[in-house]
Amino acid sequence: MKQFGRVVKWAAIAFCVAFIAIQLVPVSRTNPPVEGDFRGSTEVVSVLRRACYDCHSNQTVWPWYSRVAPVSWVIAHDVTEGRAELNFSTWDQLSTEKQAKAMKESWKEVAEGEMPTWYYVVLHPEARLSANDQSVLQAWSGSPAAGEKGEDDDD
After folding, report:
1. How far apart are CA 80 and CA 97, in angstroms?
2. Residue 59 neighbours by CB under 8 Å, 6+ apart
3. pTM above 0.85, yes or no
4. For the chain, domain boundaries
């Protein structure tokens, strides 16, 4: 039993040292300048700002836990990936066709329950999309209502 106590003690010390050491790994938490913010109806802008902007804009609000590794690594990765996929802070730099495509793809992600991600909603319950929020985004995207066939749907 004494041996087990020693192992636990050294494992705890090793864990603490490793936890402190990983805090030294730098993570970029930048917000580049907004080059052309998204403009839309008040309802759409409100939903997007509340549920999407932290990962899909240059206006990320970096919470305190974004400074604690390894969570900071996940958050920085998600923001970088989100901005690369769709960045509302550079919206007006997209062609009309690319904007329309981004709107449809955004709705598809929402309709499939992929966005916002479940773990984001756990930490940010205000980002949960109500039925009304989803209706607003669906109308914004120009996607047909559930049960209707659009021109991009397969028969």
Report:
1. 24
2. 31, 34, 53, 89
3. no
4. 2-141
